[in-house]
Specification:
This protein has about 775 residues and is α/β, with parallel strands linked by helices. Helix content is about 55%, strand content about 15%. It contains 30 helices and 24 strands. The strands form 6 sheets. Strands 15, 16, 17, 18, 19, 20, 21 and 22 form an 8-stranded mixed sheet that branches. β9 and β10 form a beta hairpin. The chain is flat. The two termini are about 55 Å apart.
Amino acid sequence: MSLTKMKIHSLLKKINKLAPKMRKMTDEQLQAQTEIFRKKLQSGKKERDILPEAFATVREADYRVLGMFPYDVQVIGAIILNEGAIAEMRTGEGKTLTATMPLYLNALSGKGAMLVTPNDYLAARDEEDLAPVYKWLGLTISKGFDEKLSREGKKVSPIVKRAWYASDIVYTTASSLAFDYLFDNLATSKDGQYLRPYNYVIIDEVDEVLLDEAESPFVISSRPKLQSNLYDLTDRFVKLLKEKRDYRIKKDLQLFWLTYHGIKFAENYFRISNLFSEQNRELYRHIMLAMQAHLFMRKGHEYLVVRGKVVLLDEEDGRLKEGVQVGTGLHQAIEAKEHVKQTAVQKVAASITFPSLFSLFNKVSGMSGTVKGDQNEFLKTYNLKVYQVPTRKKVIRKDYPAKIYLTTSDKLMAAIHEVIKLHNEGRPVLIVAGSVENSEIISELLLNDGIAHNVLNAFNIVREAEIVKNAGQAGAVTVATNMAGRGTDIKLGPGVKEKGGLAVIGTEMLSSRVKGQLAGRAGRQGDPGTSQFYVSLEDRYISHASTGRLKKYYRKLMRKKKNGADIVQLSGIPLKVGLKMLRERVEVKGVMSRMQTNKYEVVLRMQRDHFYQQRKKIMYLNDLQDNINQYLKAGINNYLSQRKNWTQAELRYLINEHFSYDYIKDLPTISSKKEIEKFLFELSQKILQDKAQILINREQLNEFFRQVILSAMDACWVDQMDYLSNLKLYVDKWNLAGYESDYVYQQRAYEAFEKMQKNIQNSIVDKLLLSPIHLTKEKKLVVVFN
């Protein structure tokens, strides 16, 4: 069913008509509705058939349990969410309560419903606040994580997780769900798995999850690679380089390269004759990594050093990315730059992006305060329609045009003066910095002027809710990165409305959506408020995407300023139009980048889905003898196809390498490949029969087969994942040579997958025949893989 305004209002009318009927019911009668709905669904009815009654039931339950009766606009949002679409609901319009209706309805089938948030604070808060309603209506509810155990670094057992995910309604975070999916598919037995098929999900702050975080895969690491000793050497070398003499840089394109002088300097420094020769390829790669770490990875912007460790920073919202690493060795290059202990470069065992994760659900919906501007991307990429939900009260917030300055210092001083003026008026102020470093600078400037304030950035995220809660009090000043307590309302304190409400002061040029999110912190539910953004031509957003004309204009004005001209604030229609076009260009580039990532991810998703299905099949089969025979025949064929003609000496070497360490006396006369295949298969069966004598029963033999197959599959899949991770970086450069990178990626990825299948077959032969087995005193099977 495609939603129209008429259909939405028709459903709303039906739900409202049922309100008096629900109000007349006793608690017992209202609670009994859950079982009535379940029986209707079991008899063949669809969710949409019982939607009006189900929504009216939850609406009344919300009132009786929480004392809150969802408004019409919240019911409209719930109808949109149930349809598998995105509801744009402004800040403060009550998205949390809105979700109770579709979650209840979609959980009635017994297949489960989830609400996924960007962080654990929101998930824990919403689960705690709304659990009484669901429990009152007879549904089970849980969180999909345990904050205490996570902080202590303790693992949760599969039994506990199975209970979490078996609940009718689960509140969890997007990252917890991603990691649980990967670990569930890496389990070595049925007992180690805990997920059930995904049914229905509501993604809170859907733009953050499916757009801002779309390009960051969630990765589970495997065995470490051989650690290089070149990181420290190349770091010391790069510190000696001078721009223009030794290297050139184009910051807007994130490009840099060594000059002829720089190349010769490198060859002299490392005492080599040719930097670009095959044997020096790794050295050159490490030089490039060290240069990237120094030229583009800025402390306080892209990363922080926390307790002696390099932790990545999401400059978009100022949050730390604990446990996340930049791939390809760049993270280790940053560690060398900061002189902290280097972490091991590890192979990727499994990875998934949010777009792939949420494609696994039968029905996906989402909600956010700012998604309308991205509706085309949501429709094209995720097939999700965006509907705007009207606000309950008219938005009276005033959004002033951005003020443009030449330099960062001019901009910041103007913004600080405005904060002081508003503070003296008794209005609460939220001043937003573009990075953690800038938030600390603004904080210092405010302290110099004697303005008491709170700072909300990556260093004090644990106090986020408390800081945001107090940000609306009279005279409060809050400095924040772009996170600004997303998902938490800033409620105005006594007397603040009369003074003009919350004032949002932005100090960076931002994307339209992030700007809208920050402005939306003020003016909730008809409250007064204002937003004012201060930008400069030195803002990173502008400098990284500016045209030659804009750069020329900036340099011209800077020359005048240095010569004494009083140039501070800039104006003029050409400049404003130029900045508007620049923002559009950056946003289009972001869309294209996400599209490219999704294209690569589609290929990986197909391979991952196929691999996980095969793996699951092996885990759940009770008799693997036929599979083992197939793998043996395939592996034998692979080994024999390596050469056309075989001598007895070559065959003996093959047997000792892959089949048996024992000396085989009676080798067959080499007549045909078929004869050798038959001999090797019979030899394999004999070796397996000997191993079977050690085991107690057929079940234990089957467990041996399972361990061998899964071990071989997992080892080869790790190599495949590692290859695909590096392949993305490799093929991106093919566009420069006129090749279609998508085609190159798909072709190479397919070839690698075919090769992986053969490697699995070969590895199974090796592990099956060469790995010793024995039983413990408790008669438990132990396999020692070579």
